[in-house]
């Protein structure tokens, strides 16, 4: 059975044949999808594993209490027996991806071994992963005697790639490096809005994992650290007497000077004006 609406949205269903049990993996359904802001969020619950390969734009996936931003050159692995929702990220104009729902021997064990529930996002080599998904979709669209064999081979190749990626990731990047990566990105553009989901995507961790690892390394949360970094910058800018406080606030990521002054007093123990006078400016 095939359902197809246009080139960017297509679904291909497959009922495994009588010899499908001879192969370790099965693809039950696969397709191409494009989300926009007007499409809202889709909430579903199935009972198999789903792989999502982002082609362009940015998606937001909510699963198991975690929120994950899925961008290009990533694969998200979801256990859809859990309640989840997904859609276009609020800061993006679209999210275009390929996907497949799979089942097979040992998938639950691999899912657990790779700790996917806490960190469902994998960095990929891009072209290689996209080619695998495209082959799976074409295979279901042109079903034949080899459909089950090809499906199993495609899933095996993707699982092998994800295991290798997560293994390399864990051996080459310790917790400190991931936190430092977030710090570098934030410091390079301190004035912009930094949603926790985007910080998590930079670190390739879930939001809860990043929060925990950040606190282990710095003793504080990511958002509190950003607030202190902004106040440190504000102190340097306030030393210049010709820079208005409203402009200092804007350069530190505060559109509202009142909120800037409130946070500055909370952290520095005095208002921006008092700090400037105390510095003799």
Word description of this protein:
This protein has 281 residues and is of the alpha+beta class. It has three domains: 2-172, Regulatory protein AraC (Jelly Rolls); 175-222; 227-278, Homeodomain-like (Arc Repressor Mutant, subunit A, Orthogonal Bundle), CATH 1.10.10.60. Helix content is 44%, strand content 24%. The strands form two sheets. It has a seven-stranded antiparallel beta sheet with strand order 1-2-3-10-5-8-11, with helices on one face. The protein has a four-stranded antiparallel beta sheet with strand order 4-9-6-7. A hairpin with a 2-residue loop joins β1 and β2 (9-13). α7 crosses α9 (257-268). It is elongated and about 85 Å long. It starts with a strand and ends with a helix. The model has no long low-confidence stretch (mean pLDDT 86).
List keywords for this structure.
Arc Repressor Mutant, subunit A; 281 residues; 7-stranded antiparallel β-sheet; 3 domains; 10 helices; single chain; Jelly Rolls; alpha+beta; 44% helix; elongated; 4-stranded antiparallel β-sheet
Main sheet: strands, sense, barrel: 7 strands, antiparallel
| Portion of residues within helices | 40-55%
Q: Residue ranges: pLDDT <50 for 5 or more in a row?
A: none
Distance from N terminus to C terminus (CA atoms, Å) equals 75 Å
Helix/strand-derived category reads alpha+beta
Number of strands: 11
Assembly type of the shown chains? single chain
Level-1 CATH class name of the largest domain: Mainly Beta
- Average per-residue pLDDT, rounded, comes to 86
| Strands in their spatial order, largest beta sheet | 1-2-3-10-5-8-11
Bulk shape: elongated
CATH homology group of the largest domain: Regulatory protein AraC
Order of helices and strands: EEEEEEEEEEHEHHHHHHHHH
Radius of gyration, rounded? 23 Å
What would the CATH topology of the largest domain be? Jelly Rolls
Question: What is the count of structural domains?
Answer: 3
> What fraction strand?
15-25%
Helical region count? Answer: 10
CATH architecture of the largest domain: Sandwich
């Amino acid at each position: 059975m095939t359902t197809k609406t246009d080139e960017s949205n297509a679904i291909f269903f497959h009922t495994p044949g009588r010899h499908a049990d001879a192969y370790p993996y099965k693809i039950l359904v696969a397709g191409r999808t494009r989300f926009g802001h007007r499409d809202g969020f889709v909430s579903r619950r199935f009972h198999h594993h789903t792989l999502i390969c982002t082609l362009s734009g940015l998606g937001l996936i909510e699963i198991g209490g975690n929120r994950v931003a899925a961008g290009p050159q990533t694969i998200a692995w979801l256990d859809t027996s859990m309640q989840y929702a997904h859609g276009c990220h609020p800061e993006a104009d679209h999210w275009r991806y390929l996907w497949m729902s799979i089942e097979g021997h040992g998938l639950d064990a691999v899912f657990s071994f790779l700790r996917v529930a806490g960190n469902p996002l994998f960095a990929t080599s891009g072209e290689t992963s996209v080619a695998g998904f495209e082959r799976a979709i074409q295979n279901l669209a042109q079903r034949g005697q080899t459909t089950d064999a090809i499906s199993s081979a495609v899933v095996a190749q993707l699982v092998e790639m994800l295991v290798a990626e997560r293994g390399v990731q864990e051996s080459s990047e310790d917790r400190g490096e991931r936190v430092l990566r977030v710090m570098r990105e934030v410091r390079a553009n301190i004035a912009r809005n930094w949603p926790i989901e985007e910080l998590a995507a930079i670190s390739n961790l879930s939001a809860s994992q990043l929060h925990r690892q950040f606190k282990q390394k710095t003793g504080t949360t990511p958002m509190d650290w950003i607030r202190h970094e902004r106040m440190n910058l504000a102190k340097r800018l306030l030393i210049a007497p010709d820079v208005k406080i409203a402009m200092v606030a804007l350069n530190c990521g505060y559109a509202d000077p009142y909120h800037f002054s409130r946070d500055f007093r909370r952290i520095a123990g005095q208002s921006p004006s008092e700090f400037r006078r105390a510095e003799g400016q």
